[in-house]
Amino acid sequence: MVADTSTVPRTAEPVPEPTVGGRPKRGPAAWVAMYHSVSDCPDDPYNVTVTPARLERQLAWMAGRGLRGVSVRELLAARARGTERGLVGLTFDDGYTDFVTTALPMLRRRGFTATVFVLPGLIGGENIWEPIGPRKPLLDVDGIRRAVVAGMEVASHGLTHRDLTKATDDVLHTEVTDSRHRLAAVIDDDVEGFCYPYGYVDERAADAVRRAGYRYACSIAAGPAGCGDFALPRIHIGRADTSVRLELKRRLARVHGRALEAV
């Protein structure tokens, strides 16, 4: 089924990528960091929580090396211009309330931006998709709008955190397309980005996201061949990632297929 995007604001035409001698201009590979919750909660069975103190040190590590954290939208725009050197994509999955209460002030102090992927079907709810572990509140409408006002990109994580590779055609369409419409109504703007729940992506899911009108989608590992910007790989960042581990991850990003190539 082809998505009806008539109720979603139209996006601008993609910016042509720079070329040299008719060929795409290559530049340094940028990498995208994947965060989830920012909390002092010690119960973290899925390794998706970073303490506020650890996040502060990680952001300081980036700034100390001349790196600036940006949203995926900003990173892709810079890549299209060939100006992505020194940028790191910052993403926060699931749309936990602590993104606004804890992470956002840290990002703003350093002049960083980020993309927060929210679940429009669970606005103001909690992480019901996790069978064990603590219940954590998700952003409500006011929290989502606060993130937008602060200059963050708000994008879709699907409606209810379903594995799209196992979804029926109807569920896939609803999770991908309806989430875009609902979120656009909340933020009163276009929704350019999508993030596959659990990072699971196949050609069918990527095609559904593309047809729904998104400009890009994030996964974890690189997706099937030909997905391009609809399966952008990311580096998982956890509470154990000290400056030494971050430096190692940065250096190995391209080797491990987690880098965003400027091609």
Any chance you could write out the topology, listing elements then pairs?
Elements: E1 19-20, E2 23-24, E3 27-35, E4 37-38, E5 49-50, H1 52-64, E6 68-70, H2 72-81, E7 87-92, H3 98-109, E8 115-118, H4 141-149, E9 153-156, H5 169-187, E10 193-195, H6 203-211, E11 216-218, E12 235-236, H7 243-252, E13 259-262
Parallel strand pairs: 3-7, 3-12, 4-5, 6-7, 7-8, 8-9, 10-11
Antiparallel strand pairs: 1-2, 3-13
Helix pairs in contact: 1-3
Polypeptide structure, described:
It is a single chain. 31% of the residues lie in helices and 17% in strands. The protein is built from seven helices and 13 strands. The chain has helices at residues 52-64, 72-81, 98-109, 141-149, 169-187, 203-211, 243-252; strands at residues 19-20, 23-24, 27-35, 37-38, 49-50, 68-70, 87-92, 115-118, 153-156, 193-195, 216-218, 235-236, 259-262. The strands form four sheets. Strands 3, 6, 7, 8, 9, 12 and 13 form a seven-stranded mixed β-sheet that branches. Helix 2 (72-81) links the parallel strand 6 and strand 7. The protein is globular and about 45 Å long. The two termini are 31 Å apart.
Percent of residues in β-strands: 15-25%
Task: Quickly count the helices.
Answer: 7
- Low-confidence blocks of residues: 1-28
Q: Tell me the quaternary state.
A: single chain
Distance between the termini: 31 Å
C-alpha Rg (nearest Å): 17 Å
